[in-house]
Amino acid sequence: MIMEKDQITLPLDEFPTKWYNIIPDLPEPLPPPKEPETGPSRMEFLSRAMIKECLGQEMSDQRWVTIPEEIRELYIHMGRPRPLYRAKRLEQSLGLKKVRLYYKREDLSPTGSHKTNTAIAQAYYAAKEGKTTLSTETGAGQWGTALAYAASLLKLECVVFWVKSVFDWKTERRIMMKLLGAKVYSSPSKETKTGREILSKNPNSHGSLGIAISEGLEYTETHANSVYCLGSVLNHVMMHQSVIGLETIKQFEMIDEKPDLIVGCLGGGSNFGGIALPFIGEVLKGKRECEFLASQSQAAPNLVKGEYRYDFGDVGEHTPLLKMYTLGHKVEMNPIKADGLRYHAAGPIISLLRKHNIVKAVTYPPDEKAIFEAARIFVQTEGWLPAPESSYAIRAGIDEALKAEKAGAEKVICMNISGHGWLDLDAYREKLGIQ
User: Fold this and answer.
1) How confident is the model at residue 2 (pLDDT cuts 50, 70, 90)?
2) 10 Å Cβ neighbour count for 260?
3) Which domain-ending residue is among 204, 228, 252?
4) Where in the sequence is the domain holding 300, given as residue range(s)?
5) Which is nearest to 384 in space by CA: 334, 420, 413, 410?
6) Would residue 7 count as lying in a domain?
7) 384 falls within a domain
8) pLDDT tens figures, 338-389
9) Domain co-membership, 185 together with 279
10) Model-level pTM greater than 0.85?
């Protein structure tokens, strides 16, 4: 009897040498950023505030972009390629006979999430341009931790503006960022004009990613040799994250399997885009059939209830106008434990694919009971503790599997586990009533 392995490991010599850029393969040209009708040029501001190489990648029409050897070495140092797992124990628990479940392990990075894939790239390019300080925002804390990690490897300073509602309860992740050498501020903060204005109107503001982005951009503008790094939404971030999907395509080929559905959680779109876009590119070129499902919170249902229109990416209106599914950049959103999903808009690429019905979306109630119950099932069957955000993918994956099983349909579903939950145990305690 030959043991059937549930872990599919990509050989090191198969690790991608190029990032995939979906822009040339989109069903219509990506709407370009626009200047607002009033105020200073946002394009000119971003040219000063952001990494020039990343801005060049942002609207590139080059399908394949070579990953510099130094970045590949750092990717391998931090544990890429990452395994794909067959969720056999979860299947058994759910009573699945016709449906097969897989999950990609992005939680195995040094900081516990997929965010390191673009953090390493952005820090590398910033260092090459002679910058000394990286400024950013973070919601759940995974991006801030990843950038702090990348900055430490490349001997750069890192300043993080962290959404207050999460800053207040994730003390262990705050310690981790500071251990990596980062300065971490609760957002809205008194460090920026944007933060001070918001606090003067509402001293008890919970904060949001839109506010934290404004603070990160303003900090860059007022501090010499600083550069702003963004962890989601923008096209170059999706491109850096494409290593997830490129690995996964090869891993399914190794076992002669083809996914029928790719599922990921979605706030701005980085982990969803990372796994989905390489597969979507093959669908658009007629090379495969596959469906794509984004799992969201009803606290920030940008793909479900948003309007497809031009909007700012931040509350302070520092960014150019981007065409996205948006709830409005000034919208008030209640905090949730999966706060990395609490963003007012989906990235332009994901939004265009949603417009063409290539990407579909589902939302779950903001009490998150269904999400944490799915996480409980996952940890008790597969043994890995997922981040609250990743648990949205697990919830949607389970729901889709049960739906297909009930219909008697064979289906292969792949979920992206974007991060671990070891620094989210207080959320598990609260949501699942664990004493």
Assistant:
1) very low
2) 18
3) 228
4) 82-112+242-432
5) 420
6) no
7) yes
8) 989 999 999 999 999 999 999 999 999 999 999 999 999 999 999 999 999 9
9) no
10) yes
